[in-house]
User: Fold this.
Amino acid sequence: MLDDGLLRDFAEFSCGDEEWQTDLRDFLIEDALGQSRGRFSVTFVFYTESGEPAGFAALSAAQVSRSDTGLGRRAPYPVVPAVLIGRLGIDVTQQGKGYGQQVMALIREWAMSLPVGCRILALQVDVRNEGAIRFYERDGFTKAPIEVQRSMQWMFYDLEARP
Assistant:
């Protein structure tokens, strides 16, 4: 979990130069600790085998409409318990090396081990970030049928349908 000491390790962290990539870095450096202290999200940091900063994920509790998830009447309530992946970033020097897949596998494992109900992993991705959308789709996420809001696409992963 991110703390002041670990944040220093990520001082040079960068996901890339596109607006959505710099937004990820800005969140990590400027907002992650404050949001954690306020209990709005918890940011986990990840390192390579050699100890280099690899990436981070900010997680929080959420609920989503059963109709948006595609569960329909299979869900017993109008809203479905979820873990929100508020931010996920992999350092540009580590992209394409499988760290994103490893982080997603850990998030699924954590969500499945929660001592409370959790059916869905939810996230929003910038519609301009086609690479991220493809990454999430390869990982089993589906685009929500709801309208894109402020250039952000909701995507969901059904933990019950996981391989």
Observations:
- Helices lie at 4-9, 19-37, 66-69, 99-113, 130-138.
- Residues 19-37 form the longest helix (19 residues).
